[in-house]
Amino acid sequence: MTDSTFRGIAEHRSQAYWALSRFFLTRPDEAFVDEIRGGSAAGGADRGMPAVLRLKTALGESAPGPLAERLAREYTRLLRGLGEQFGLAPPYESLHRGGRLMDRTSQVVAARMRSAGFADVAPEAGPPDHIGTELRFMALLCLSEAQAWTAQDAVAAAGRRQEQAAFLEAHLVAWVPAYCRLLADAATEPFYSAVGELTVQMLHEDRQLLGALVDEFTVGDSVPESAGAASASTRGGIRG
Q1: Torsion-angle region of residue 136: left (phi > 0), alpha (psi -120 to 50) or beta?
Q2: What is the CA radius of gyration of the chain?
Q3: Is the pTM of this model over 0.90?
Q4: Using CA atoms, how far apart are residues 64 and 11, in angstroms rounded to an integer?
Q5: Which of 5, 82, 143, 181 has its CA 20 to 30 A from that of 132?
Q6: Within 10 A of 100 (CB to CB), how many other CB atoms are there?
Q7: Which residues pair with residue 88 across a beta bridge?
Q8: What's the CATH class of domain 3-232?
Q9: Do 140 and 121 contact (CB within 8 A), yes or no?
Q10: Sign of the torsion formed by the C-alpha atoms of 116, 105, 202 and 215
Q11: How far apart are CA 240 and CA 100, in angstroms?
Q12: DSSP code, position 237
């Protein structure tokens, strides 16, 4: 592949992760409902992907106003940290992996983001290990990789890809699939069940893609060996 091809892949992945993060960070309104029905809210995701099609189908034929009101209530109940007594524990990695909010996991995630140069990814979501914040962080890492390709800096691009692979493996795939199953069970609106399905499907496919890109991408001795080793660990299916 050429540098421009690698750049295009990174841009596509960035758009997909950014769009996915919006489902967890945006309280639905009529404009957002219209975006979803038009397909643009799915960003870089394949419009023919079964989960994307189900996302649109789940909205049904309701008028945008009443539908947005229902989805906004569901968003608040499921994703805004009201607690399990209201339907589902809020979507923070520390809470779903360790049972306690703001534990060491949250600190590690914050440190990774600062180290990568992104200290305030989505401050409105609270602690940085919120699912939407973690997905948005991946979007920013992919965008940084694309920018490195534009600058013809293959070593910097490899470093950004290393960061993506490490974060995907150590964090997102370690808890998000299990969380999305809980989300599907707790959701009263089919839309949020579909959001969970789309999230798992995209993470699974991106994990496989990162592994394939490691095999494809070589720039001789200039690429740090750690980049290939870390990214190679993403091969295989999602656990959890």
Answers
A1: alpha
A2: 18
A3: no
A4: 31
A5: 5
A6: 12
A7: 83
A8: mainly alpha
A9: yes
A10: positive
A11: 19
A12: P
Both tokens assigned to 144: 């940084």
What pLDDT, on a 0 to 100 scale, did the predictor assign at position 165? 93
Helix, strand, or coil (residue 31): helix
Residue 2 · residue 152 · CB < 8 Å: no
- Reported as a single tens digit per residue, the pLDDT across 95-148 is 999 988 889 999 999 999 999 999 899 999 999 999 999 999 999 999 999 999
Output the six-digit token pair for 167: 């974060």
CA distance 238 to 84: 26
Q: Which of 40, 49, 54 is nearest to 195 (CA)?
A: 54
CB 169 within 8 A of CB 237: no
Handedness of CA 203, 111, 212, 39 (dihedral sign): positive
